[in-house]
């Protein structure tokens, strides 16, 4: 196996283009090394992107938007006070993944590109309106987070392409986000259902909303019907009821050892309500 | 591909080794450097028995490649005691009988030390969550948690 440490994303893309056989990019390695160990993937070329300038940085631009480096681990997101204040739901979604040890290495981009429908940080990214830069042999393009996973374990990235940055929008005034998942224990488990909500208020009325669901379909879903159910409302009981119905209606889950179709469909509605209430409360309290 | 030359620092000492790029840091520590404190439990980042610090960050050494240690600083359980003097965590583990077979113990000591450096006064809940990635199949955890809480209290008094 060749182990390469390119100094730029363009060079990383070129390495991937020129490599023959199986190629993998390495950031935190919490999926790649497990797959190597289990002989699921045996890379001929492993491209370590942690040596690229800025790959581990978390920075806020002048307009309040954030750039999170592709190799910034969850632990550094959680320890970043301003990021946690702006986007608590995004930080919590990431923080729910694995143990303290896994948090020391695991990254948002790894979670996105692993393309598990149950990935905890992905519904939070989708709700937040996160976009990613995708660098390939022909340059760099921007893509919405929800357009990266296409099926369990599959992404829309072409051969030789890699994600080179995570762009989180400016929080702005009167906004709040949240992520909740259901698991049958308190820690170290995979979501049976996950839900991300990001919304903005004018007074008590919701003016913008994005609602996402995880683990209830082959990919994480952005559910417009859920957003429509609460936009223009004060998140009163009638709106919450419509939200739950829209969330359950959007589900296309499987039955497995973690939960049945019926259970997941029901829990999606319940979680959407609880998550929306937290996001609403944060939007009321967060006037930055 | 031929072996890669890696220069790193382990428990404060400059160290060099040659490793295959597929080799994990855990394998390098145990098989090449004879630092057998870190244990292989699962090999997939689930059990925490191989916990070490990489540039001050708690990680599973089974999920780090040996080549990734280039230019880094690694702390293992072998660096916790000061010569013959045990670290308070080590003493409290003995006092509380917080170990039986001992396979998980090095990882838990490294993880607990990392917690107490960040948070010298953790609640029991914080200790339990921090150590959720360190599995112990013997003790039922209670003695481990008590030992960590007691060590934290002693270290606060000494500070």
List keywords for this structure.
heterodimer; A: 288 residues; alpha+beta; Uridine Diphospho-n-acetylenolpyruvylglucosamine Reductase, domain 3; Enolase-like, domain 1; 2 domains; four-stranded antiparallel sheet; 35% helix; globular; B: 159 residues; Ubiquitin-like (UB roll); DNA polymerase, domain 1; five-stranded mixed sheet; 5 helices; 5 strands; 16% strand
Please tell me about this protein's structure.
- The complex is a heterodimer of chains A (288) and B (159).
- Chain A starts with a strand and ends with a helix.
- Chain A has 2 domains: 2-116 and 131-168, 2-Layer Sandwich (Uridine Diphospho-n-acetylenolpyruvylglucosamine Reductase, domain 3); 175-285, CO dehydrogenase flavoprotein, C-terminal domain (Enolase-like, domain 1, 2-Layer Sandwich), CATH 3.30.390.50.
- Chain A has 11 helices and 14 strands.
- Chain A has a 5-stranded antiparallel beta sheet.
- In chain A, 35% of the residues lie in helices and 25% in strands.
- With 288 residues, chain A is an alpha+beta fold.
- Chain A is globular and about 60 Å long.
- By secondary structure, chain B is α+β, with helices and mostly antiparallel strands.
- Chain B has 2 domains: 4-79, Ubiquitin-like (UB roll) (Roll); 88-158, [2Fe-2S]-binding domain (DNA polymerase, domain 1).
- In chain B, 34% of the residues lie in helices and 16% in strands.
- A 5-stranded mixed beta sheet of chain B has the order 2-1-5-3-4, sandwiched between helices.
- The radius of gyration of chain B is 16 Å and the shape is globular.
- Chain B starts with a strand and ends with a helix.
- The model of chain B has no long low-confidence stretch (mean pLDDT 97).
- The chains are: A alpha+beta (288), B alpha+beta (159).
- The A-B interface holds A 1-3, 26, 29-30, 33-34, 36-38, 46, 48, 50, 73, 75, 98-102, 104-105, 187-188 and B 1, 4, 20-22, 24, 43-45, 48, 51, 54, 57-60, 62-65, 67-68, 111, 114-115, 129-134.
